[in-house]
User: Which sequence fits this backbone?
């Protein structure tokens, strides 16, 4: 076993068992702006489906003031961010953007039934492969 294998093993253990993550995030932002024009809002464990809930949230968190409702699908209400410049595809509030934007994307997206834009430069890779998990269960 090499030093690289040991370090990878420690990293996997830390992310999986301490941080309780299932995926490593890889890649980088390509600034396509797609994640700013189809946004679901999660409150508690669920994606919001009622406009009333959203208006209450707007009073509690400044980020929500930047969102405008554009539709609804089987997951819930869909918003776009007014800070997205539709011509340049850049954020007009980049330096002061909210933490939600800075941390995007997080793996919770999948847990709430969402998906990432096909143009996104990030991808999520399982920390442990199916084969590795099966091996652990058999031990
Ligand atoms: S504030 Fe900027 S980065 Fe955040 S959703 Fe809006 S346009 Fe995107
Ligand atoms: S969808 Fe992905 S690549 Fe595009 S702006 Fe959002 S984080 Fe960046």
Assistant:
């Amino acid at each position: 076993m090499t030093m690289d294998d040991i370090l990878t093993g420690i990293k996997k253990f830390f992310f999986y068992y301490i941080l309780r993550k299932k995926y490593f995030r890889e890649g980088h932002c390509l600034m396509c702006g797609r994640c700013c024009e189809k946004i679901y809002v999660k409150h508690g464990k669920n994606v919001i489906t009622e406009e009333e809930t959203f208006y209450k949230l707007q009073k509690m968190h400044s980020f929500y003031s930047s969102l405008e409702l554009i539709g609804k699908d089987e997951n819930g209400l869909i918003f776009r961010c007014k800070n997205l410049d539709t011509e340049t595809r850049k954020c007009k509030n980049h330096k002061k953007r909210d933490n939600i934007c800075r941390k995007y994307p997080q793996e919770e997206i999948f847990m709430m039934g969402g998906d990432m834009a096909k143009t996104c430069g990030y991808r999520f890779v399982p920390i442990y492969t199916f084969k590795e998990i099966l091996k652990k269960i058999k031990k």
